[in-house]
Amino acid sequence: MSQDQTITIDNVDYPLSSLTENAKMLLSNLQFSDNEITRLSNLLAVVKTARGTYAQALKSELLQSPKP
User: Fold this and answer.
1) Are the CB atoms for 16 and 6 separated by under 8 Å?
2) pTM (2 d.p.)
3) Confidence band (pLDDT; 50, 70, 90) for 66?
4) What is the rounded CA–CA span in Å between residue 38 and residue 33?
5) 3-class DSSP state for residue 59?
6) How far apart are CA 6 and CA 9, in angstroms?
7) Cβ atoms within 10 Å of 52's Cβ, excluding its own
């Protein structure tokens, strides 16, 4: 016996098979948006790390340079 997959919205379970085509499209867009938020959050973490590394390298470079 197979169990129908469900989606829970506001503590109410909805069988995926009962969703309208529009609801399925909206769910797909919601999942895409969640995935993009995760991807962009990861990218932001990488860029922040790179920025910190560049700032540290600049400080090091300035300390080795003759003072004006």
Assistant:
1) yes
2) 0.76
3) confident
4) 9
5) helix
6) 10
7) 10
Going by C-beta distance under 8 Å and a sequence separation of 6 or more, which residues neighbour residue 26? none
Termini Cα distance of the chain: 79
What is the rounded CA–CA span in Å between residue 41 and residue 47? 10
User: Token pair of 20, please?
Assistant: 């309208």
Using CA atoms, how far apart are residues 13 and 15, in angstroms rounded to an integer?
7
User: Which parts of 1-68 fold into alpha helices (H)?
Assistant: 21-64
Q: What is the mean pLDDT of residues 56-60?
A: 97
Cα-based distances in Å from 58 to 7, 47, 51, 61: 50, 16, 10, 5
* 2 pLDDT more than 70: no
Residue 3 pairs with which residues in a beta bridge?
none
Report residue 13 as tokens: 């379970």
